[in-house]
Amino acid sequence: MSKKKSNNFKQVIYKLVTDVFEKSHNKPLNYKQVAAKLNLDDPESRELILEVLIEETKRGLLSEPEKGKFVLKQLKTFLTGKVDMTASGSAFVVPDDEFEKDIFIAPLKLRNALHGDTVKVYVYAKNKGKHKEGEIVEIIERAKMEFTGIVKRSERFAFLVPTDKKMLQDIFIPLSELNDAEDGDKAVALITDFPEGTKNPVGTITKVLGKQGEHNTEMNAILAEYGFPLSFPPEVENEANAIPDEISQKEIEQRRDFRNTLTFTIDPFDAKDFDDAISYKVLDNGNYEIGVHIADVSHYVKPDTALDKEAFDRATSVYLVDRVIPMLPEHLSNGVCSLRPNEDKLCFAAVFELDKDANVITQWFGKTIIHSDKRFSYEEAQELIEVKTGTYSEELLILNGLAYKLRDRKFKAGAISFESTEVKFKLDANGKPLGVYIKERKDAHKLIEDFMLLANRKVAEFIATKGKGNQKLTFVYRSHDAPNEQTLLGFAQFASKFGYKINTTSDREVARSMNYLLEDVEGKKEQNVLTQLAIRSMAKAIYTTKKSRHYGLAFEYYTHFTSPIRRYPDVMVHRLLEHYLKNGQSANEETYEKMSLHSSQMEKKAADAERASVKYKQAEYLEGNVGSVFSGIISGITEWGMYVEIIENKCEGMIRLRDITDDFYVLDEKNYCIIGQRKKKKYQLGDEVQIRVKKVDLSKRQIDFSLVQ
What we know:
Helix content: 25-40%
Number of strands: 33
Oligomer: single chain
Strand order of the largest sheet: 13-20-19-16-15-14-21
Strand content: 25-35%
Number of domains: 6
Structural class: alpha+beta
């Protein structure tokens, strides 16, 4: 047997041996008995099994209570979980069992595991320090095999240096696998081999993205880094392009016709995909008929088609600083499905009769056809609301008044008003940032949001209350748990240092005092720090089939129904709602739970990619300001430094502790500060400081500041 084959076989044996002992209730076994249980009775296999048993005994996983007989040192010391790499090269495994604590893994015990991998870990019997320790014994599933980075080429070989901070190993690239990549190019490499005992994985270049530092190269690199494809496969494009723009008379006859009812859209000025519209009518009894009409994507995108599979894989559109990477091909997202003005369009709608106090008198869900009369930008709609005159101003003012009442009721029920600042860049024709501005949210934004919230809430409520117990209907909800009590108490303690009180006695009191804080802090220097910390103290919203309330919105039931052009969960919701309106049987819960989990994961990746693109533009914007002095707010504290956000442009960088030379500073995690050990000078989260831009590394999207004493 070749050495390579022998090593591979030993790895397989190693993975199976511990299972044999556990299934045998840790009865002492010799190598022949282990071989028999594995159905590997040939002499060569027995010899390898004996080698594995001896090696694992030396490593401490097994013991030899009597000569030639082996047992596991301790049963139930194996856990599965995900690897979380640290900058030092060590890692923590976060167990799948939420009741288990994280397990520390020293660098030599990683067994070539990479960040995010699902692994099996052997946990040592004794703790060292505050964490359990262990070693990885099996890589169950790789999180990713493709990495974005910069090609470094020498005469005889090359490496790809990954831009992912959690990927600590450079990828070895044989010259024959460079595929036209040149030294300094940004590229994508696929890991093809990671030999046991070696430091670096081996890979091949699968895509050359372009020259480092070029705008398009860097944006494409971010997309590739987070696993979003740069284009649609030909079969997906072909399938989309084959869908006609025309609507048949037969289809129109099957729908409720709103083409003669006033309907309009309100979106960003540069939007191209309009997936929601509002219809408005005054009824004879003085009440209002308000229709929330949503692009009927599920009419065009059918299950098990190439188009549907691609949309599911992407799960969401991605919004970078200068572009949208759509979930659906342009023919659908900007064309057939988009609710453009003066065109007949197919929709799935939630139509409500509201009285003058915005109480829902009746509701109806079903398929509609609309003809949008006007495409408003937020700015245009806001101007009509403010000046109170002009075409459709009366309708907008009534809708705005109803929205205010819906909003007020939501906050009285315990919703929390998170209004974090959104940074936008003014870019030149080449994508270079010329300036930074803060996007304001005014009544026009909130008007649309409140009617979308109403539709989402009522659709979820309709399905959740339709079937109970064993008759409950599988559905996709947008769930938001109550915050962790300790995390919330930590935030309350920190907010109190600024004079703000958070009452944690009940959910409603938490919401009430949090809203007071968010209102009081508006316009103050600590606004962004406190808002971001408040958001971090909350649980993360997810998609799930489990019926659970939305804590942040104070809704008992909530879903995402209103954006199927850019979110796959909304497509699932449309399909399920249509199925149940036709009295269909409950869908398979396990299937939809897996799809919901995937959607939540992709949503997080999209948010991370968006943040990375903002970080890159911030670095690019400050590249010409190295040496300049700014006022900033301390926005984050870590054991190696403190993050500072510049007040005037919201760009964030780090001051490293080693660069603060007037004392030796250490982290006080509990009080969100660093403290000098001799002079006791303290820098706390939220403090205003003067900084100088010290260094900008575009390739790492990293900004370093120095403190102006």
